[in-house]
Amino acid sequence: KVLGVSTASGVIQGTDGWLYYKDSLSDYLGTDPLSERSLFNIAHTLSMMQTYLEGRNVDFLFTVAPNKNSLYDEHMPYYDKVKVSDEKNLDRLVPWLSSEGVHYADLYHMLLSQDETLYHKRDSHWNNKGAAMASDLLLDTLEKEHDSWDEEPYQVRTDFEGDLDTMLYPSMPQLEDEVYYDRQTTYAYVGEVGSNFDPKITTVNPVKSGSLVMYRDSFGNALLPFMADAYSSAYFSRGVPYQMSEVDEKNADTVIVERAERFLPEMAQLPPIMEGPECQVNVTEEDTVPAGAGAVQCEIQGNLEKITGCIEEKYLDTDSRIYIRLNHNKIYEAFPMDVSTEDGKTDSSGFCLYLDRSLLAADGNQIEIFTDNKDSARIIGGLTL
Q1: 148, 197, 266, 368: which could form a disulfide with 382 (CB 3.0–4.6 Å)?
Q2: What is the rounded CA–CA span in Å between residue 142 and residue 339?
Q3: Residue 193 CA: distances (Å) to CA of 140, 174, 201
Q4: 50-59, 124-133, 305-314, 332-341 — which is least confidently predicted?
Q5: CA dist 308 to 278, 315, 347, Å?
C-alpha cells in the first residue's frame, strides 16, 4: 500500500485507489487482437445457436459485459497506457454480429453514456446499480414486460469487499460503497444456494411469467436478482461449453448469453454442445481436394459423437462455413472454432460437429469435409469412422 504497487500477479494497481484485472490488459493495449476469422467464428456460432433456438420458438439475446478499463481507463497506471491500438476485440466483433444477424444488446455504450461510475473501484465488476441498468436494457431489448429499476429509490452502504482488493490485501480488504434498492424482489431460490456465484442456480417467481435460461459468468452475480425477478422460472449456468439440452429441460422461452469482454477469445474456442443442423448445400464434386483437411478426431459424449479437426487456411475465406456429409447422404454444418496449436498459438480454421450417435452405422461411416466459397462448396477431405 505504501509503495502503490501490486503484489498479486492478477491485479493492476491503478491511481487513486483503483484496481484492475490483469486478464483484460492485452485487450486494453491491443497487443493480441483476435483475427477476423476468429471474430467470424464467434459471431457465426452465436448465429447458429440463435437459428436453432428460434426454430423452437425460443427468443435469443447475446450481450457483453465491458471490461472495467474499457469504460473507466483514466485510473490505469501510466505504464499500461502505451497502446498498440485503441480498437478492441468487442469493437471489431459488433459488425460481425450485425452481418450474422445476431440479436445483440449493447451494454458498453449504454454504460459509457452514464454520468456516474457504475463499477466498483476495487472490484472487476459493476455495482448493483450498473447491474440493474443492464437488466433493464436486456429486458427492453427482448420486449419483455417488467418493472424498470430506473426511478427506484435506493440506499448506499459501505460494506462491499471487492474481488481484486481481496486478492491484493486478503487480510485487510478496504470496504467500499454498494447500492441497495428499497423495492423488494419476489423471486425465490430453488434448493440450497451458497452464493450467486454457484455454477447452477434455479429460481421461481409466482407473480411473473416466462421461463429464462441464462448462460453467464461472474458479471451475472449482481445481475441475477434483477433477471430472476422478471421471470416465473429462471435457470442460471456458468458452465462452458453451453449445454443446449438444458433449454428443453427447463422449457425455456428465452435464452440469454452474457459474456465478459475479456472472455471473448474463449468464445471462439468453445462452441456449444448442440447437434449440428442438417442443411442443403450445392457441392462441387469435381473440385475435390483430398489433402485439404487435417487430422480429424472423434469422441463419444453421451449420446452424441463429437467430430473435430482443422482445415488448411488456404481453403477458407474469412467467412467460410464448414460442412460434413455423412455416408454420401445428409449434410450437417459444423461450428467454426479456434484451436490451440502445439507451439501455443491459435489456429482459427478448426471445426466441431456434434451428431446424434443413432445416425451412425455400426459397421463404419464415411464422412466428407467441405467448405464453401461465394458460389458453392468444395470437398477438401474424407475419411472413414
Answers
A1: 368
A2: 33
A3: 28, 26, 7
A4: 305-314
A5: 17, 17, 13
